[in-house]
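Hey, I was hoping to borrow your eyes for a little while. I'm sending you its amino acid sequence along with the backbone structure tokens. Take your time with it, there's no hurry, and the full record follows here.
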Amino acid sequence: MIEVSNLSKLYWTGLIEVKALRDVSIMMGDGEYVSIMGPSGSGKSTLMNLLGCLDTPSSGSYRLDGQEVSALNDDGLARIRNRKIGFVFQTFNLLPRLTSIANVELPMIYSGLNRKDRKEKAIAALEKVGLADRMLHRPNELSGGQTQRVAIARALVNNPSIILADEPTGNLDRETGRDIINLFQKLNLEFGVTLIIVTHDMEVGRSSKRLIQLVDGRLVKDEKVDT
């Protein structure tokens, strides 16, 4: 499903060239649960942005579901993001004035789905993350864990090929963070959701089935996780 070959990303800070990612090659299949780890400046956020079609590489190839996406323009990348990728962020990124169900419906508005179908799919997504009784609550009426579950439901609602989670437990206490990781494991095991999590937390990283580690923009480790 994901084929990355010799992917590199260069930035310029003034006259200084920064090599954020260096010749990274990775393959991931449907239904995988992968963690990407590394110290600050290792390139993990850069890799996530490239996999999420939020940026384009300086060189190399990225194929998603057989389609070469590394050279698409902004409109092409936006279409891929809307159809194939769901995002979960550390800061949740929910709209505070909207209810849970309205927040979950947002990605489907951009895809042109009618109101009835949007509501049905949003309800199903919220049920999947265990929030059937919080559909009409706004973010300020929810706990941190519940808010992140709404964000996960929003990421799931368009049935994306992959879900990318950027430090999804970073703003949560450890117990609530474990609940969110348990939810990810359930979504992967029971529903076959493909998950890629960027994290600095080894406990989160070891909860996945595969661990990728970056250092100085290079892939230094790619291993299965013992369970």
Notes: Strands lie at 2-13, 16-28, 33-37, 59-64, 67-68, 85-89, 162-166, 195-198, 210-215, 218-224.
